[in-house]
């Protein structure tokens, strides 16, 4: 797919994520509104059912099991009639309700009267049924019914699974005055139920008030919310991993290309030098001039050695990557190996006008390792410090021991490595190209990859502390040999 270039992948992923986020938000909002509606209906039915149940209990005391009572007082129609009777509060309307049980029948009377003249007013005294009881007795009974009503409502609310703050308001039946409680500020998340009577004495009406139902809705939507977030998170993670993988692949492909061209160039140089030398010997009959001949032969031998060491390096790396490298483990003292490498590199150090400070340790430092690979590791690290630092570089090699672990530190005051590359420099073929002063430094990008692999095979690790412009500190950490 030519049009699906890598530069479009990131914006495409971002757009896809933003669109899915918006769709999820719209869907969740829709769900929230539907859930809110259904919750409001549930809360309303909790109060109305409690009102019906408590009223029935007060009416049918002693007749709770009677089929006739249940058929009448628990019917939908009776509830609707009651509700309508309660709700009808026209100005100056007097509603009277009477209920009584005689020997063989029950009587329910609903009576409404209003004054024709709007200027006249009824005396709003209790219009409810008292069945011959004193006003005080009726009030006491009303309070008891109110308590039962409230606790029934609370019990049902608790069954919803999430505790919500709630309270109630009480209204005078006859004139609708607020007697107790406080209405919440009109917020979108508040719920206020209808007003319900809870007995036949018709003194007061009960209203449930929930200041906020938001958290209850969220609680009821929890599975949808979790799955929605999980889906978004997984999509984002999948995109992130894919893009990272793609970037790594690109980097790798780029690094491999550079490696091939570098290597070709590096191999080409000694071959050209040797062929020029051989041609000169032939052309100018240098066999007759032994001094010059020796010089040309020396150059050729040196170039051949360089060629061989380069080929060996690539082959060694190839073997290591294939897992075919077998370490020749033996008990080795790290210090003499390091000293040997340092003296072998003396010419390079001097050529660069650098100073290499070696801080030896007083005691021998034994590890179980492969001397050849370990000395290659030291060579690579000192070589890098020399290669990438400007002239008059200061390189310091030191030891430290902690928790039966040996740390060999290679510190330089060169250009350092930007924090974003601290992991990548250990990847195969990776080289930093935009560092000004190392533009022309030759290399294959295999050195640190090899170092890491060798040290890992020895059960150790390589730590790198560096900042751009602040030099590098490569720390090789190896387990010290322990006698059992
Ligand atoms: N001491 C250092 N100071 C600054 N940059 C460094 C240092 N050591 C390594 N680097 C950076 O890390 C990159 C990888 O180093 P590595 O040794 O793996 O490869 P190389 O030196 O380019 O090639 P090779 O070692 O295979 O000849 C280098 O290209 C360089 O940019
Ligand atoms: Mg190197």
What labels would you give this structure?
rod-shaped, 4-stranded antiparallel sheet, alpha+beta, phosphorelay sensor kinase activity, Heat Shock Protein 90, 13 strands, membrane, 3 domains, binds magnesium ion, 5-stranded mixed sheet, binds adenosine-5'-triphosphate, 484 residues, Helix Hairpins, single chain
Could you walk me through the main structural features you see in this protein, from its secondary elements to its overall organization?
This protein is an alpha+beta fold and 484 residues long. The protein contains 11 helices and 13 strands. Strand 1 (93-101) and strand 2 form a beta hairpin. The chain starts with 5 loop residues before the first helix and ends in a 5-residue tail after the last strand. Mean pLDDT is 85; it is low at 125-129. The chain binds adenosine-5'-triphosphate and magnesium ion (MG). Residues 380, 384-385, 388, 412, 414-415, 417, 425, 430-432, 438, 443-449, 472 line the site of adenosine-5'-triphosphate.
